[in-house]
UniProtKB/TrEMBL annotation:
<feature type="domain" description="AMP-binding enzyme C-terminal">
    <location>
        <begin position="446"/>
        <end position="521"/>
    </location>
</feature>
<dbReference type="Pfam" id="PF13193">
    <property type="entry name" value="AMP-binding_C"/>
</dbReference>
<dbReference type="InterPro" id="IPR000873">
    <property type="entry name" value="AMP-dep_synth/lig_dom"/>
</dbReference>
<protein>
    <submittedName>
        <fullName>Long-chain fatty acid--CoA ligase</fullName>
    </submittedName>
</protein>
<keyword id="KW-0276">Fatty acid metabolism</keyword>
<dbReference type="GO" id="GO:0006631">
    <property type="term" value="P:fatty acid metabolic process"/>
</dbReference>
<comment type="similarity">
    <text>Belongs to the ATP-dependent AMP-binding enzyme family.</text>
</comment>
<feature type="domain" description="AMP-dependent synthetase/ligase">
    <location>
        <begin position="13"/>
        <end position="397"/>
    </location>
</feature>
<dbReference type="InterPro" id="IPR042099">
    <property type="entry name" value="ANL_N_sf"/>
</dbReference>
<keyword id="KW-0436">Ligase</keyword>
<dbReference type="GO" id="GO:0016874">
    <property type="term" value="F:ligase activity"/>
</dbReference>
<dbReference type="InterPro" id="IPR045851">
    <property type="entry name" value="AMP-bd_C_sf"/>
</dbReference>
<keyword id="KW-0443">Lipid metabolism</keyword>
<dbReference type="Pfam" id="PF00501">
    <property type="entry name" value="AMP-binding"/>
</dbReference>
<dbReference type="InterPro" id="IPR025110">
    <property type="entry name" value="AMP-bd_C"/>
</dbReference>
């Protein structure tokens, strides 16, 4: 067989040649809707590759982005990686100090940013001496009249100055292509460096029927940002299949998303649970329905069963639950049923679908106890989840310490899970969030999932707090749904019959809002701080 290295630019060459007139639609930070095709994406990416060379970006150099999901960000994905440099997507919602740390650690030589982030970048730039070029991803008309930013360039000027004569280089498929940092809620963020090979293999897997199940007939809108683990691979998957791509830019509020879903005929989407909860509330209020959306992949945090049910029954959209992390590119497991399970009752099938699911070929997993001994797949035993595979991290980028792999080559995810006899994995907690009560473990995720099933609950968090007798007990923290009342006793009674009695939260607190991480997950460290020294009462 021919020894053709797997390269990210190959995806673009394919889409340009075979899906030339398929559209890419973006909502831009400047407020416009922009439309073009894969042919335009190919041409402009080559112009951009020439511009990068003119900026002095060489093989292996890191190029940072602080940007929404737009066609320009997509061009950067292809021009940077395709030319042999490393596309480093930075989460703009991180604290400025973390962004400065990440840019320094990655040694980004250039940083491309959207108009939205101009004020942020003006603040950061002085602390990022290694950045030789700051590029505002807009046209001349949107450039600031005056700025303290050194070496500021205009994206559209850079592109316009170049011709599209550029041959994507061919190199070893193990060449680094992109870089993403973990959000570092407990420690400094850590970099995960993907390769062309890992990215392509991940894309093939993502397209499978038991995974995203997409084809050229789909219209995909990734709500998950391109700075959150490469939008879960969608920017690579779409050109591979030739799908129309709809990029929502900064418009991540429910009304803007709904408008794009309907206007562009979106059939498939993906994002964290918070986004879908927001959309559900909006659509209920306005009594709206989707006319084309058929399926969405939900992951990044546990998807509450109530959300599955509402999407299925009220909106006629199937949710596929997926699990993964920055270190796994991110797809690890996806929940789809096997034929043996189709004869189960609809309630049993539903219970199964709320698990995090089965591994995709390419990823293997196991659960182990504290001594590293494998635990049975009985759906009851839970332990540390370990994974391995060609798109799982081997060691962190530029880490001083050796990798986090076990001696026999497995990556410890930091998640605690069960695996049932049919191979369905269920996350019970992150190991840091597990509640250890009287020597037994309580799953905070399960308690949260049940709580959000109550009609008066908008959001719920459960944290373990020190307890004199049981070492730790669960505290339930609730955000009520607007216009709804519910008491602590009613909420505790709601758990009756659904869990072992000793799992019932020790107390309930009501708050106006809960803190979230930069990727929209509950920020439990912060919640634990808020309730530090909590008095349990009687
Ligand atoms: P961070 O949350 O640190 O930014 P990631 O985005 O890589 O990093 O998050 C990975 C973690 O998110 C996983 O280890 C797991 O704890 C959690 N996670 C991801 N998907 C799910 C899911 N479907 N259910 C429960 N937890 C999930």
């Amino acid at each position: 067989m021919m020894n053709e290295p797997l390269r990210i630019a190959g995806l673009l060459e394919h889409a340009e040649k075979w899906h030339a007139d398929t559209e890419i639609v973006s909502r831009l930070p400047e407020g416009l809707i922009h439309r073009y095709t894969y042919v335009d994406l190919g041409r402009r990416s080559r112009q951009l590759a020439n511009a990068l060379a003119r900026l002095g970006i060489a093989n292996g150099d890191r190029v940072g982005t602080l940007a929404w999901n737009t066609h320009r960000h997509l061009e950067l994905y292809y021009a940077v990686s395709g030319s042999g440099a490393v596309c480093h997507t930075i989460n703009p919602r991180l604290f400025p100090e973390q962004i400065v740390y990440i840019i320094g650690h990655a040694q980004d030589r250039a940083v491309f940013f959207d108009l939205t982030f101009l004020p942020l970048v003006e603040k950061l730039a002085a602390h990022c001496p290694g950045v030789e070029a700051w590029v505002l991803m807009s046209d001349r008309a949107h450039m600031p009249e005056s700025t303290a930013l050194p070496n500021l360039h205009c994206y559209e000027d850079l592109v316009a100055a170049e011709n599209a004569d550029y041959q994507w280089p061919v190199f070893d498929e193990n060449t680094a292509s992109s870089l993403c940092y973990t959000s570092g809620t407990t420690a400094e963020p850590k970099g995960v460096l993907y390769s062309h090979r890992s990215t392509l293999l991940h894309s093939f897997a993502a397209a499978l029927p038991d995974c995203f199940n997409c084809s050229s007939q789909d219209v995909i809108l990734p709500v998950v940002p391109m700075f959150h683990v490469n939008a879960w691979g969608i920017p690579y998957l779409a050109p591979m299949l030739g799908c129309k791509l709809v990029l929502p830019g900064p418009g991540l509020d429910a009304a803007s998303l709904y408008e794009l879903f309907e206007q562009e005929g979106v059939t498939f989407s993906a994002g964290v649970p918070t986004i879908w909860l927001g959309l559900l509330t909006f659509m209920r209020e306005k009594q709206l329905q989707f006319s084309t959306l058929r399926q969405t992949v939900v992951g990044g945090a546990a998807c509450p069963p109530a959300l599955f049910r509402a999407f299925d029954k009220e909106l006629n959209v199937q949710i596929r639950h997926a699990w993964g992390m920055t270190e796994t590119s991110p797809l690890g497991t996806v929940c789809t049923l096997k034929p043996q399970q189709l004869s189960l009752s609809s309630e049993e099938q539903f219970a199964l679908k709320t698990k995090q699911g089965r591994v995709i070929f390419g990823v293997d997993m196991k659960i182990v106890d504290g001594e590293g001994r494998a635990l049975p797949h009985d759906g009851v035993a839970f332990g540390d989840l370990l994974v391995r595979g060609p798109w799982v991290v081997a060691e962190y980028f530029g880490a001083d310490a050796p990798g986090d792999l076990t001696a026999d080559g497995w990556f410890g995810t930091g998640d605690v899970a069960t695996i049932d006899p049919a191979g369905f994995m269920q996350i019970t907690d992150r190991s840091k969030d597990v509640i250890k009560s009287g020597g037994e473990w309580i799953s905070s995720i399960e308690l949260e999932n049940l709580a959000v099933g109550h009609p008066a609950v908008a959001e719920a968090a459960v944290i373990g707090l020190p307890h004199p007798k049981w070492s730790e007990r669960p505290l339930l923290v609730i955000v009520r749904r607007a216009g709804h009342e519910v008491s602590a006793d009613e909420l505790l009674a709601f758990y009756e019959g659904k869990i072992a009695k000793w799992w019932t939260p020790e107390a309930v607190e009501f708050v106006d809002e809960l803190p979230h991480t930069a990727t929209g997950k509950l920020l439990k460290t912060k919640i634990r701080q808020t309730f530090a020294g909590y008095a349990w009462g009687d």
